[in-house]
Design brief:
This protein has five helices and seven strands; from the N terminus they run E-E-E-E-E-H-H-H-E-H-E-H. It is α/β, with parallel strands linked by helices. The chain has a five-stranded mixed β-sheet with strand order 3-2-1-6-7.
Amino acid sequence: MRYGLGRDRHGVVVLLTFGTGIGSALFQDGKLVPNTEFGHLEVNGHDAEKRAAASVKDEKNLSWHEWTFRVSEYLRTLEALIWPDLIIAGGGVSKKAEHWLPLLDVRTEVVAAALKNDAGIVGAAAAATEGIGH
């Protein structure tokens, strides 16, 4: 949010990291809303990260199209709950955003994290350095 595409964005911004699971951070007008666990939303009777984490793509040998269909289902569930203005996708698959972001079928603008897989690490380090807590 400070160094990437969320900078100077107002409204509701969600950062999601797709990796072994799905990490999440929610921001309202640039301020962190603590304690989100959006990776554990129920989607079609299943924990979202059990169907849409990047690790699932690899474990099940899913194509980009097959995996992105699952991610779209997850994001539409998230949209129905909080109506985000922007979704920033981080994690390892953000390095390959050109393969899957164009395939998403969602209403919200979704962009790859400018810092790619390092976005969460940089944000956590900034929060720790500046004493940002809940």
